[in-house]
Design goal:
The chain is mostly beta strands. The protein has a single domain, classed as Immunoglobulin-like, CATH 2.60.40.1930. Helix content is about 0%, strand content about 70%. The strands form two sheets. The chain has a five-stranded mixed beta sheet, with no helix packed on it. A three-stranded antiparallel beta sheet has the order 1-3-6, with no helix packed on it. Strand 7 and strand 8 form a beta hairpin.
Length: about 80
């Protein structure tokens, strides 16, 4: 599994996370605020058919800087910094 990027990097309400997975796998997303507290955690099943865009509704987050950490089976994949306006 490979996590590419999160678009846009300045999020108003929604973002798209691009992931590549050739097998069915669960991906866990943990969003941390600037103090390192987990503000949101999501788990979803990837279908395993190559490139997939995951729609993320982030409208419930307060404005600020966040880190999106991605995991697969407890294995850390990637960390992405973004701003919620």
């Amino acid at each position: 599994m490979l996590v590419h990027d999160l678009h846009p990097s300045l999020i108003v309400n929604n973002g798209l996370l691009r992931v590549v997975s050739e097998t069915k796998e669960k991906i866990t997303l943990k969003l941390l605020d600037k103090e390192g507290r987990i503000t949101k955690s999501l788990t979803t099943l990837l279908e395993g058919n190559g490139i997939q865009d995951l729609f993320l509704n982030l409208s419930d987050l307060n404005s600020g800087t966040y880190i999106l950490n991605t995991f697969c089976g407890g294995r850390f994949l990637k960390s992405i910094k973004f701003i919620k306006s």
